[in-house]
Structure formats: C-alpha cells, structure tokens
C-alpha cells in the first residue's frame, strides 16, 4: 500500500507545473506547513473555499459594515476538518502509520475516514452513540471506517482515544495533533488573501477549541508578514477573535467543565475542550471574546442564512451567525457591536454543510402532501 502512496506522490510531483489552486492546502501553503520533500501528500483538493460577501447580512448589521461568510462546508467532506486532515494524514503516513484513530462529534470522523481511504490505510472512529448527525455517520460508513459507538459523550471518546494512542498502535488525528492545527490555519491565510488584509472581527463556533486556536496561529503568522500575499501592503492588523459556544455546552464561557453538555448543535456538544487554554489565549491576545448562543438562536440563524443568503449550514456553524446577531442586537452580548467603528469588516466562518445534519429541517418536510397532477391543482397549491 505504501508503494501506491509514493506513486500518488510521484503523480503529484508531475503535476507541480499545474497552478496550485484546487490542489489542496499543502500545495498552496507548503512553506507554512510542517511538510518536507519526503512527505507523501494525501489530499482531496481541500481549502480554497469561497469567502462570500453577504449583502443582506451586512444590511442587517448596519453601520456600513461588510460581512463575509467563509463557507467551509464546501470542503471535500463538507467541513473545515479537511484542511487539518490532509496535513495530519500526510504526516502520519510519513511516520509509517498504518491505522488512524479519532474521537468525534461527526465531522472529524467523516474527514479522517475519507483521507484514510485516500491513503489506503485503516481508520477507527470512536463516537458518542446515538449523538452523531445522520449525514456525518453515513459518511464514516461510506468511506469504510471501523466505527465504534460508545455509551458516553465526546469527552469520554477523546479520553479513550488518547489512551489507545499512547499505546502506539494508532495515529491520533484529533486536533490534539498539532499537524491538524497547522493545516486549519490556512483558512485564516485565505481570508487575508480574499479581503486583502485581516478582517476587524473573526467570528467562529467553538467546540473542542482547535479551530479558533488554528485561526489565531494563522493570523499571528500573517501579522509577522510571512504570508506572501500579504507582504505587499505591509499591514500588521489582526482581528478580534470572537468564539461562540452553545449555551448548554459552554465550558470556556463558564470557566468550568460541563459534565453533561447538551445542545442541538451536536458538533459542538463538548464539555471539556482539548484546546481550552489556547482558545483563551487567542481571545485574550486578540482582545476578542467568548459568548454563548441558545439552541433557538442557532436554529433561527441557520434558517435566516439559508433563506436570505442561500447558504445552508449545519447548526454548529450557525452558532457563528447567531453570535453575530447577538453582538448587534443584545445588550447582554460579551462583545457588543453597537460601538464598533463604521465600515468594519466582519468574517463569520461557517464550518460544516447543512446537508450533514438534516433531521431538524426534515421535520418541516412532513408538511409536503402531494396534489393531483394537473396544472390547476398545482397552480392552486403554489398559492402565490
Ligand atoms: N463546527 C463544526 C461543524 C464542527 O464539526 C466542529 C467540531 C466545530 C465547529 C468546532 O470546532 O472543535 O475546533 O472548536 N467538531 C469536532 C468533530 C469536535 O469531532 O468533528 P473546534
């Protein structure tokens, strides 16, 4: 199998003359990632996701602000995890790994399973039983992972994975693996490139807190002007990092471990985040904030974004949009936007595709009753 992988690498080498876009984050940002000429690159063409200017969202926020949505749901497995997974799996293969392992609320397992399949190695995923969104579980099955559901939550699953990883039989590809964080920071690079500078505010959902850590690492690197596209204008601006946890799963906000985290946003149903300290540092150093949003606010934001901007995201991702509304509307917001400078530039990262977690919207589909197949009946049913 390893022979095939180096063969793949050889083919990539032949393709080096092809422009880097669409070839994955390692091809694009090689110099900023922990790879070398011996690293076999396992990629599915991740990254390079759209940074969408959102007119209605900008109008909703007012004050002449520009709001952009970084749509990470269009990565190869439908979430931002792919950016880190290409690096983590490539490095694992370089070190001779035969089997990957991860704990997951769904997206990490989908991504790990896909990149393992791509590399031709096995993948074990440990999941909280009965708590994984349908689309994500389906992906893990489709990519052929060995799936173990436990009678416990994500935090239990990660504890088990850490122990199994220590025994040396598995390569852990959770975000406790620094290669994951390294790959995920490329989203911050792309935002800087897309806007031409760092935004004023970067809003993100927070679960295990790896992504907010990765973005801040990326921003930090951009500030040191090591990102080539940024060198030209010499800016050293960084955004305030604002993270949002679900109200029932908000350990960082409450500054205490949550034993039984609960939220409809299953991707961020985490009570003891692995990158807690790093997230706190990112928030403090960037003069940002951590805040909470309720499940009702999350669902309302998911619906709003789909209906008014045409961007369908999973509930955890909608936490960033719900958070944006809270910053603008609520007196109780940890970071109020009421006094931010006019024409601020705000980026909300939406982390996963809406089709992954269809259960809530599926309930609305039950209202759909067939009518007779005639123009009159259809016209009556359209009722516009
Ligand atoms: N959004 C989505 C869609 C996620 O899947 C996750 C995390 C997050 C946000 C939070 O990111 O953990 O870096 O703070 N999902 C992990 C998983 C835990 O197992 O798929 P984070």
Describe it.
With 384 residues, the protein is of the alpha/beta class. It has 17 helices and ten strands. Strands 1-2-10-7-8-9 form a six-stranded mixed β-sheet, sandwiched between helices. A four-stranded parallel β-sheet has the order 5-4-3-6. The longest helix is centred in the last third of the chain and has 15 residues, at 295-309. The N and C termini lie far apart (59 Å). Residues 5-15 have low confidence and may be disordered. Bound molecules: ligand F0G.
Largest sheet: 6 strands, mixed
Structural class: alpha/beta
> What's the end-to-end separation, in Å?
59 Å
Which blocks of ≥5 consecutive residues have pLDDT under 50? 5-15
How confident overall, as mean pLDDT?
92
- The backbone outline, from C-alpha atoms, is globular
The secondary-structure element order is: HHEHEHEHEHEHEHHEHHEHHEHHEHH
Bound molecule types: ligand F0G
Overall strand count: 10
Rg value? 21 Å
Q: What share of residues is helical?
A: 40-55%
Beta-strand content estimate: 5-15%
Physical arrangement of strands within the biggest beta sheet? 1-2-10-7-8-9
Count of separate DSSP helical elements: 17
Topology:
Blueprint lengths: L1 H13 L10 H5 L21 E3 L1 H7 L4 E6 L9 H14 L4 E5 L3 H13 L2 E7 L5 H9 L3 E5 L3 H13 L4 E2 L5 H7 L1 H10 L5 E5 L4 H14 L4 H4 L8 E7 L4 H4 L21 H10 L3 E5 L1 H15 L5 H15 L15 E6 L8 H7 L9 H8 L2
Parallel strand pairs: 2-10, 3-4, 3-6, 4-5, 7-8, 7-10, 8-9
Antiparallel strand pairs: 1-2
Bound molecules: ligand F0G.
Ligand F0G binds next to helix 5, helix 10 and helix 15.
